[in-house]
Amino acid sequence: GDGELLWSLGSLPASFKEVVADSTREYKILCYGDSHTLGMCALGKVYEPYGRALAAALSQDLGASVEVVVAGHYALPTAELLAQRDEDEVKDGLGNICGGLGHLLKTLDRPPDVVLVMAGANDTGTLTGKNMEELSDSISRLYALPLAHGFKTLALAPLTRPSQKAASLVRRARLAKMLSWWVDDYGESRADDPEQLPRAAFVDPATILLPGPADGADGHWDADTFHLTPKGSRFLGRKLADYVAALLFDTKMPMQYSDEAIEDASGVQLRGIEVWRARPEEKAEAYLGDVEDDFARGELSRRVPTRSLALLMVKPEDVPCVGQEAEFFLSRSAGDAGTLAAVDYAVAWDGGVMACLPQIEDALGLPRGGTAIEIVDLLRWSDDEVMLKVRGASLLQLVAKHPSRRAKGFVVAMLQEVLEWGRFEAEAGIDALEGELATLEHLFGECGELQRRTNLDAAGDFGRTALSERVASVLQTTEPVRMLGVPSGIDESRLRRAAAISHAALAALSVNQRMKLLVQPESLSLRIKHLNEYLGKVRSLLCARLAMGRALDEDDGPNSGSS
Questions:
Q1: What distance in Å separates the CA atoms of residue 337 and residue 165, rounded to the nearest whole number?
Q2: CA distance 440 to 452
Q3: pTM of the predicted protein model
Q4: Chain-centroid distance, C-alpha 226
Q5: Of 17, 214, 313, 343, which one has the greatest count of Cβ atoms within 10 A?
Q6: Which has the closest alpha carbon to 142: 155, 130, 129?
Q7: Neighbour count for residue 301 (Cβ, 10 Å)
Q8: Contact residues for 3 (Cβ-Cβ < 8 A; gap 6+)
Q9: How far apart are the first and last CA of the chain?
């Protein structure tokens, strides 16, 4: 699987065999597609088909001999692949000669046990809303060819490219969704006659190969921003082995990212923070160099993965706290073009999750913290206007600003989630934390009563809505969000309520004080400590103001005049 690179594939189709001498089982797999299937790397100087790693991984996993046949055509659009499907010789953009898919299915020396089809990458660069259905139909007809011949089929969406603009990424995501619907429809028709119709499954490689630096070095994407590196192709082949094995033995397909989702009017799934959490970790060292000092200072945690998100920069007063919902109207005419692109990017790549940070005037650099928000509803009035509803899911700490996904018009930054339970909480214990929370609740109530008596609310809003109501709202909003880092022996419901009280109190503070705590995010015990300190000061100031008012009233009383 990780042998020497191939300077040429030779004649097509190419064959990669892994032989297990003492096994009587043999499997044959056909991988058909475009230059991604052929494994073109470094502008055609070397080749590393994903089928090569697929053969090695399957053979090792199954303890059986496996032959993977790789066939395809460089730079040919899907319509051409379909039109020449039965031709015995199809000449591609590099002059390679290979038979069409229909011809291959009829002429292989033995029938394949599974056929993988991936096409469409050469069409996505010109993909529009108008031609999307036509392209989906052409790719689906290629999927249908091996099924019509009675072969199990793994239908792959076309690979994307890390340099694509956000709008193109969204269109590709919509195309992938349409292709998955076709496979779903086929599966429903097969349910009536499962013995006669072969099984099909769908995989979107975008859930396996995430966008990253297209530098051709040690990443997955080649410097041409279109093809995979040898490492990326091997990674794809190894990951696809599990899906192929499930087809071979008619077992449950490996889980891709969560199917539980909200869809916008275009059918694009908006998945939650669990999808982002399932992304492979992005090593901070790749962008920051030596980060040992950051770990030593506690600015980074080795317990928490670092991953990147698109940033949603809004006015400080509009940043939602954890457990709050917010709505944003975005319009290109109002200067929100970059923000619209960031939203599209988040939907296409990160399950509709973004990092919401305050836009602070004259600030040097980005704030160090903010809120992870999930898009829970998205209404597209047009390509230029969007109504966005989000909810705060967790606190985030910025690790570093970096252009890891070559996004245009918006910033993608590396972040870590802030765990509610850490070293300080473990030292204090849940009982002590709840004692501090009782103090917080008492202070909040006192500040609310003092505000009602003084009509002074510059420090926050503690009187109009009871803290208990705020906490109930936070608990309801965050109920779908899994808490990270909860140790065994700790009642999660107690910890969840404790966190909800702190977030509800934080949301009630004045904008300036709220931002101070949000942009320097802390775990639960430190947050409670600073909330209690602030509320204690507010109570003292309000008590002083109330006493001053009483003194003034007494001075202005009927007996206050001079004798």
A1: 12
A2: 18
A3: 0.59
A4: 21
A5: 343
A6: 155
A7: 19
A8: 52
A9: 104
